[in-house]
Amino acid sequence: AFKQMEKDEL
Amino acid sequence: MNIFRLTGDLSHLAAIIILLLKIWKSRSCAGISGKSQILFALVFTTRYLDLFTSFISLYNTCMKLIYIGCAYATVYLIYAKFRATYDGNHDSFRVEFLVVPVGGLSVLINHDFSPLEILWTFSIYLESVAILPQLFMISKTGEAETITTHYLFCLGLYRALYLFNWIWRFYFEGFFDMIAIVAGVVQTVLYCDFFYLYVTKVLKGKKLSLPA
Q1: Residue B61 has pLDDT above 70, yes or no
Q2: Separation CA B107–CA B117 (nearest Å)
Q3: Strand (E) or helix (H) holding B209
Q4: Sheet strands (E) in B106-186
Q5: Cα separation, B152 vs B164, whole angstroms
Q6: Total tally of structural domains belonging to chain B
Q7: If DSSP codes are grouped into helix, strand and coil, which group holds residue B139?
Q8: Per the domain annotation, does B208 fall within a domain?
Q9: Which residue of B89, B152, B192, B209 shows the fewest CB atoms closer than 10 Å?
Q10: Per the CB < 8 Å rule, is B176 touching A6?
Q11: Is B160 exposed, middle or buried (0-12, 13-18, 19+ CB in 10 A)?
Q12: For residue B205, is it within any domain?
């Protein structure tokens, strides 16, 4: 599975 | 926040503002692909739906609102205010060939099968290819105004800087997001040919024109 980044990017 | 992320965001902002100012000052959207701008407005709309669900920072919220606002302002200028100057005949890229596969891919490959997550994934995939109508238009007309090339350079630089940001975050924060990274690499690669022309022609004071 893919590890997900926090959605703090634009 | 690291230096690559910040300069990436600022480069993105610069691109958006350069394009708006170019259209506003010249009272013309000649040479600009309205289709690419609609795709970017769609990208921001589907990605920033989390404005309604989560607060990350004042910086994050402000930038999202600016990006969305500018994207729709650009579309308005092209399709309404300066519609007479819009070069629709040369803006002939078939966007359904992008939107449909990207939509399918975002349903198939995502982090979580939920509406917001699928729309976020859709926006990431779509952004990676949204510039193609613009690049297609330039290849069709064989030239681009210098200010348009500055816009494209800033827009390409932004995702390239994000790649360095992701390398940074992987090493120092343990973060990585395969969807964003793969799409970001694709997006950056699409600009490589243009970067080459920008450095070898535009930066040496020549207009960007392609051999016939």
Answers
A1: yes
A2: 9
A3: strand B208-209
A4: 143-144
A5: 19
A6: 1
A7: helix
A8: no
A9: B89
A10: no
A11: buried
A12: no
CB contact under 8 A, A10 and B180: no
Predicted confidence band at B211 (pLDDT cuts at 50, 70, 90)?
confident
* Chain B residue numbers touching A6 (CB-CB < 8 A): 175
Give the domain extent around B20: 1-199
CA distance B105 to B125: 8
CB nearest A2 (choices: B12, B60, B177): B177
Q: What is the tens place of the pLDDT at every residue in B172-199?
A: 988 889 999 999 999 999 999 999 999 9
Q: Cα torsion for B159, B148, B37, B30, to the nearest 10°?
A: -170
Q: Is B209 contained in some domain?
A: no
The whole-angstrom separation of Cα B107 and Cα B196 is 35
Of all residues in chain A, the one with the smallest CA distance to B67 is A10
Average pLDDT over residues B45-61: 95
Q: What is the mean pLDDT of residues B140-146?
A: 94
**CA trace torsion B186, B188, B191, B192 (10° rounding):** -100
